[in-house]
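2024-03-11 09:14:02 DEBUG pipeline.ingest accepted 1 chain
2024-03-11 09:14:02 DEBUG pipeline.ingest length=574
2024-03-11 09:14:03 DEBUG pipeline.predict start
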Amino acid sequence: MPVVTYGPSKVGTDALPGVRKQSAETNLSEGVGLEQARGNKFESLARVGETISGVARETYRQARIVQKQEKDRANEIALLGAQNGLDAWEHPRLYDPETGALNQRGKSAMGLPEAVAKEFEDVTGKIAEGLGNDQQRFMFAKLKQQRGAALDMVLQRHVSGEIQRYEGQELQATITNATGNAIANASDPARVGMELGRAVDAIKTHAPRLGLGPEQVAEQISAVQTKTHEGVIEQLLAEDQTKTAQVYFEETKSQITGPAVARIEKALEAGKTKAEAQKQADAIIAAGGTLTEQRTKAKAIDDPTVRDAVMQRIEHEDAVNDRVQQEAEQAKLNNAYSIVDRTKSVDGISPADQVALATHMPQLRAYALQRAKGLPIETDYPTYYGLMSKAGDDPAAFVKENLLAYRAKLDDGEFKQLADLQLRIKAGDRNAADKATGSFRTHQQIANNSLTSFGIDPTPKEGTAEAKAVAQFYRMLDMRVSALGKEKPTNDDIQAIADDLLSTSVDVKGSWWNVFPGGKPFFDQNKKVIEQTIADVPDDKRKLIESSLRANGQRVTDETVLNVWIEHTARKKR
């Protein structure tokens, strides 16, 4: 077997360097270490216990802090809710546009602090009842005290301002009422003095409380005195108590200030003039005479102001008398035509009214005769067109016309047309009047221009044959224009018809044996259609026309016969 051979020994026997040959004694070597170790162990355990106990105490302390924070937070949230509840009541109670306390004015604002304070107590009491603990109620009580004080201050300030304003309004109303009462009772000096004294006393009592100083109070009193005295004097003058007004002015002049003095003096002077003019005008009117005679007397007055006033008075009185007479005559005429319509006779008209209506009796008799015969009234076209022209050219004169004076010359339709037009103009309805007369004026203007161009006078003397011819032309023109069927015929349409009518002529045979006025001419003539007269109607044709008129229940007169003949010949020539 193999043999391992080692060399010289490699392990030395030298001592280890730094090795103590003998150590010192220790507690452990002496047997003390065990007890001490035990003691240290218990001490360490004690320290661990203390640490654990400290941690527990800290944890508990922290828990209490958190609990308190949460409780405080809950209380603060509750206080926010209480505040919001108070706001929900307070805002509309103060600021609502209609019922809010701060929008109550004048007398309505008085008593608000007490009323709102009671409501505040009720509202805050209910809010406090809803809180969860004493701390919340304590905190809310503090808030309530602050809000209540602020609310009361706002209300007191508002009420103070409203009382100030209300007092000012009532003072002004008192002054106005007292001044008005004094003026209304100008003829009663005792009442005037009482009312003026009431106004002055009110100013002295209330004006200082409204912030007016002594000088301002004095100015207010002076202004009221001036206004009252001036008003009383004006009222006396209006009642024609000129002398009384003069005496009153002399007694109160010291209390009247500023421009009022000059105004009153001027008014008194005017009052004297008025009184003198009234006196002299009454004397002139009482003496009678025509307006011209009365004016002559007035012109003899020396004082120019009095003279002018007297002239105005007598002219005014004359105009009033004329109107009274016209109204009286119209009333009599209305009654007369009513009697004729009812009885077909003028016999029912009293003799006194027949005398008063003397100028109207011929027309009334003609009207009665037509009614008795049962024949319709035929329009006299010169009369109708004359009234229509007046309505368009001079409405003021037209409304003064008594249309019943023309009743026997206007058929029912045209009389009603003119009466309605007159009523509209009297009522101030110019648009209606212009509409009614506008087309007529247009037709008339074109007609007149055409007549002139054909050598015919468009404004002949009333009652002449020429006037009847012009009226006949107007009537035929109206009829032809209406026959066009146009709502608004043009001026060219009207002009063409007018030219056609005026250019149409007929041959009228003469008669050598009839040379008297109104008869046939001696020689044959060529006339414009509208210029024909009743003498130009052949006898045989006249009999046929008269028969036709009677058959149709129409009146048979020279005028009605001629109207038919002219229209017949005009159409025959077309």
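2024-03-11 09:14:41 DEBUG pipeline.report The chain has a mean pLDDT of 81.
2024-03-11 09:14:41 DEBUG pipeline.predict end
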